[in-house]
């Protein structure tokens, strides 16, 4: 199996707006990965769904949908 080439440079060149959504009680590794991506992506907004875990999209669809609507309205 060939190693996966680093993508940091390509991500840093992305102009499209990106929204990263985590639940406030998401797994630490996922929160860390989201933070690392947010630090690389130049046009990134990161948000946390209050009371959410790793499945905020299922746990609180109304909160997530409102967050996405606001993001798309600002984009």
Number of helices: 4
Main pleated-sheet profile: 2 strands, parallel
**What fraction, in percent, of the residue positions are helical?**
40-55%
Give me the count of strands: 2
Q: Structural class per helix/strand content?
A: alpha+beta
- Share of β-strand residues: 15-25%
List segments where confidence is low: pLDDT < 50 over at least 5 consecutive residues: none
Q: Tell me, what's the shape?
A: globular
- Write down the domain tally: 1
Strand order of the largest sheet: 1-2
Instruction: Give the mean pLDDT.
Output: 94
Cα(first) to Cα(last) distance is: 39 Å
Specify Rg, calculated over alpha carbons.
14 Å
Give the helices and strands as they follow along the chain: HEHEHH
List the helices and strands and how they pair.
Elements: H1 8-12, E1 18-23, H2 28-40, E2 44-49, H3 56-59, H4 61-74
Please give a handful of descriptors for the protein shown:
75 residues; alpha+beta; single chain; globular
């Amino acid at each position: 199996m060939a190693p996966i080439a680093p993508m940091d440079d390509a991500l840093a060149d992305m102009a499209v707006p990106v929204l990263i959504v985590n639940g406030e009680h998401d797994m630490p590794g996922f929160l860390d990965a989201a933070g690392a991506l947010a630090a690389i992506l130049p046009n990134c907004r990161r948000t946390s769904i209050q009371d959410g875990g790793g499945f905020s999209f299922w746990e609180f669809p109304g909160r997530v949908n409102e967050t996405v609507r606001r993001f798309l309205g600002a984009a």
